[in-house]
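Subject: Sanity check before I submit

Could someone independently write out the structure tokens for this chain? I want to compare against mine line by line before I put it in a report. The sequence has 122 residues.
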Amino acid sequence: MTSALKEKATKLNSGNDFGGQRGDIDKLFDDSIYTIKDFKILSGEFGEYAIFKIEEDDDHYFSTGSSIIVGKLKHLEDSIETVKNEGLPAKFVEKTSKNKRTYKDIIFYPNEEEEVVEFDGN
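---
Independent answer below. Compare away.
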């Protein structure tokens, strides 16, 4: 088996055909705006998770099990071709709940002047 074939085949075993190395998603929570170029929602041992690529770092893919981020991306699955063609501007943020718990969220089109509507998961 050639090494290129082996690499492609083993990526398919995990559902990741994006290529590159897994990046540290925590580095994206830096107040920068990134452009998501592709994503997938997958099922794993602990539930659904998302893997995605960003335009600014072609060498890595990122993954998260954050139910909020996964839920938001899941609602955009029917627009994946537009995301691949145009990109999806996003800012990764940490927020604090009313119960003083920290959680990870994503804001799409963060520079838009429009009113931000909170996502309720539905």
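---
OP: Matches mine. For the report I'm noting this point. The chain has a mean pLDDT of 85.
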